[in-house]
């Protein structure tokens, strides 16, 4: 027990007449010091028959190791077990536990039936065996037959079974058990940890089961707040994960407090640090997460994956590549998860050259995994390389729902509606889900395929809110406002109004320069959704665009500034980025932080005068704020981040023939027109991905979106 095996062994060997009692003591000591093989060695020399205590210990030793030798010994001991032990509960329980560990469920069940004096330990052992063999339904079946008082072990095992099963039944049983749990178990760390773990697992399944809100995670935090014991590392990990999952005000408060007060010794525990880092990333606290990352002296692959995943979550994907460099410096080899995260980073950034650079590093056997292939389709689609997305799609034999959906979406994003429909029709019916319908309708909508969209929409049996919204968007883009409104009216007969439906209508009305519809829709939006300020600001901008397009600039300006003043909100900051040589360069509007800022501005001036010679006029209706002193319409519009990013490309030598830009918001109409013309004048291919879609600007002066943006 003190870990001094040598002295114990000496004492043991010097004992002449070894009794079962002495053997049992020695075996117990060896097992608790993880020296099970030694138990078997001693057993080979044992000259007396094991009694019931020794036998139970030996079964446990076999269960512990569960290798070939252990299985052989265990079965032999069981076969040779004297008849009278078949009434001994402790022996039977450990025999059953052993068989379950061997995966021999039938024999374990036979012993269970044989046992005439089943106690709670018997039930615990067999249920635990089922859970260990991932037979969660059976575990719960048996649990429901128990008519004995439950002990703390039962709670732990059944919570684990519910966590493993994570379906409707598991939620019902797990929650009931938790509600009825006696007070005294609420101070048992192991019970609470497994309860919290279960709640988190059930919460992950919540979406599939149609549960709303984060009730399970909230409940996990409720439980946590009842703990009055010393926290252990498992508790820290679980609570950090629960807080990360919730990421609401309460979770942020609890998570931060727990982290601040965490004792020094946990700061060397990798698993604890990794989950703390993940939590801070979910809170959007990148700096805090980076601090923990630096603090961690024993970074493992999970650490690296967690921080990169966090960067993706917080739209700072370009930092992932620096982390990758750091990993190779430390000699840590990326695993499948790492590559998946990096592919995700590439999709977010959407620069073809960067993607190619990363893909070249992925080992071939990893590249051939379906999940990776699916991510690759998404990545190529999002950086505008449909051909490569198609190659990845065709290389997959066992396509799943995600494979098809991603390919449909890739076609849709790139304005290839007919191709998207083709893949949708090719997709087996039982694989189609809500996302498939939405992606194909979106693709139709972006390519103006009305007839096909109507047919597909009519054939969908279960039309969800999002599917209906996509159809409304499609109709609005084609200026079929009455038909779109009818869908809204029909929807609202049984549902609460849904803001995005109105936004679709409004942006269609703007493209149609339909003053009447747009005013009507905007007023209705203000009435129905007074608190959705960000959307209302976008709405006000759209309406004011229409006024400007009728030459009523004064009305446009007054309307816009009045509305924005009333709503008292700041618009989201626009960001654009591009890849220059090996670096991702990012701009905000009127950004002068780049070392070549003045050259960029002169290039914008040069481009502008070339454009004006070709008949371009600045479109002031896209200005979303008051023009300050010293500013002009031109200076405000020329400050837009995508124009800066384009200019930076043009001052490179040699001048590129292909430019790629990505941005976090929708591209404005002025920048769209600007880019169309400059692609023609400079005879250059420009791809711009905005929040909504991908624009391919061709040297012939056209855009793949056909101005439906
Ligand atoms: Zn712009
Ligand atoms: Zn376009």
From TrEMBL:
Record keyword DNA repair present: no
PPR repeat locations: 119-149, 300-334, 400-430
GO biological process: RNA modification; system development
Domain spans labelled DYW: 615-708
Sample GO molecular function, one term: zinc ion binding
Keyword terms of this UniProt record: Repeat
Protein name (database record): DYW domain-containing protein
Cross-referenced Pfam families: DYW_deaminase (PF14432), PPR (PF01535), PPR_2 (PF13041)
Presence of the UniProt keyword Repeat in the record: yes
Species name: Rotaria magnacalcarata
UniProt cross-references to PANTHER family, sorted A to Z: PENTATRICOPEPTIDE REPEAT-CONTAINING PROTEIN (PTHR47926), REPEAT-CONTAINING PROTEIN, PUTATIVE-RELATED (PTHR47926:SF500)
């Amino acid at each position: 027990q003190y870990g001094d095996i040598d002295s114990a062994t000496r004492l043991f060997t010097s004992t002449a007449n070894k009794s079962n009692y002495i053997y049992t003591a020695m075996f117990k000591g060896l097992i608790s010091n993880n020296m099970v093989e030694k138990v078997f060695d001693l057993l080979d020399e044992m000259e007396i028959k094991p009694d019931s205590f020794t036998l139970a210990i030996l079964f446990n030793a076999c269960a512990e190791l569960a290798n070939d030798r252990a299985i052989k010994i265990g079965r032999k001991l069981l076969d040779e077990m004297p008849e009278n032990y078949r009434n001994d509960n402790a022996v039977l329980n450990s025999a059953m536990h052993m068989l379950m560990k061997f995966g021999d469920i039938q024999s374990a069940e036979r012993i269970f039936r044989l046992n005439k004096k089943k106690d709670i330990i018997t039930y615990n052992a067999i249920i635990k065996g089922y859970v260990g063999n991932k037979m969660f339904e059976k575990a719960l079946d048996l649990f429901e037959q128990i008519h004995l008082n439950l002990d703390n072990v039962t709670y732990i095992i059944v919570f684990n079974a519910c966590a493993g099963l994570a379906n409707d039944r598991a939620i019902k049983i797990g929650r009931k058990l938790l509600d009825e749990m006696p007070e005294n178990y609420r101070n048992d760390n192991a019970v609470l940890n497994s309860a919290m773990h279960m709640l988190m697992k059930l919460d992950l399944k919540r979406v599939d089961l149609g549960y709303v809100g984060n009730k399970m995670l909230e409940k996990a935090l409720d439980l946590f707040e009842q703990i009055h014991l010393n926290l252990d590392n498992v508790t820290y990990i679980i609570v950090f994960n629960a807080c990360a999952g919730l990421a609401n005000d309460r979770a942020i408060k609890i998570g931060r407090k727990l982290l601040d007060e965490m004792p020094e010794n946990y700061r060397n525990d990798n698993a604890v640090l990794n989950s703390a880092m993940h939590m801070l990333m979910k809170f959007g606290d990148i700096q805090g997460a980076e601090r923990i990352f630096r603090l961690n002296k024993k970074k493992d692959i999970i650490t690296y994956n967690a921080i990169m995943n966090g960067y993706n979550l917080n739209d700072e994907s370009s930092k992932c590549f620096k982390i990758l460099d750091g990993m190779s410096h430390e000699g840590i080899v990326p695993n499948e998860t790492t590559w998946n995260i990096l592919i995700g980073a590439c999709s977010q950034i959407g620069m073809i050259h960067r993607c190619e650079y990363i893909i070249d590093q992925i080992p071939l056997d990893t590249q051939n995994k379906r999940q990776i292939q699916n991510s690759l389709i998404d990545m190529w689609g999002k950086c505008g390389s449909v051909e490569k997305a198609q190659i990845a799609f065709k290389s997959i034999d066992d396509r799943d729902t995600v494979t098809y959906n991603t390919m449909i979406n890739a076609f849709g994003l790139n304005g290839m509606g007919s191709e998207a429909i083709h893949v949708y029709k090719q997709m087996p019916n039982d694989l189609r889900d809500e996302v498939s319908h939405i992606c194909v309708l979106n693709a139709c909508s972006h390519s103006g395929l009305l007839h096909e969209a109507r047919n597909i929409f009519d054939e969908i049996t279960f039309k969800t809110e999002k599917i209906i919204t996509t159809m409304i968007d499609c109709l609005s883009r084609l200026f079929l406002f009455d038909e779109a409104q009818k869908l809204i009216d029909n929807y609202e007969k049984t549902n609460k109004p849904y803001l995005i439906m109105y936004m679709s209508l409004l942006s269609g009305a703007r493209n149609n320069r339909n003053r009447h519809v747009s005013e009507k829709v905007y007023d209705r939006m203000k009435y129905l959704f007074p608190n959705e300020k960000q959307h209302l600001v976008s709405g006000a901008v759209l309406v004011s665009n229409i006024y400007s397009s009728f030459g009523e600039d004064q009305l446009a300006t007054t309307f816009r500034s009045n509305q924005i003043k009333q709503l008292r909100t700041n618009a989201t900051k626009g960001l654009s980025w591009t890849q220059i040589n090996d670096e991702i360069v990012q701009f905000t509007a009127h950004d002068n932080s780049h070392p070549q800022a003045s050259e960029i501005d002169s290039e914008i001036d040069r481009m502008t005068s070339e454009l004006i010679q070709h008949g371009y006029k600045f479109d002031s209706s896209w200005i979303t704020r008051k023009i300050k002193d010293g500013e002009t319409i031109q200076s405000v519009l020329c400050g837009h981040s995508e124009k800066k990013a384009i200019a930076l490309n043009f001052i490179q030598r040699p001048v590129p023939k292909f430019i790629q830009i990505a941005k976090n918001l929708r591209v404005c109409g002025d920048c769209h027109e600007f880019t169309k013309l400059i692609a023609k004048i400079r005879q250059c291919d420009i791809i711009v991905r905005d929040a909504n879609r991908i624009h391919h600007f061709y040297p012939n002066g056209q855009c793949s979106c056909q101005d439906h943006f």
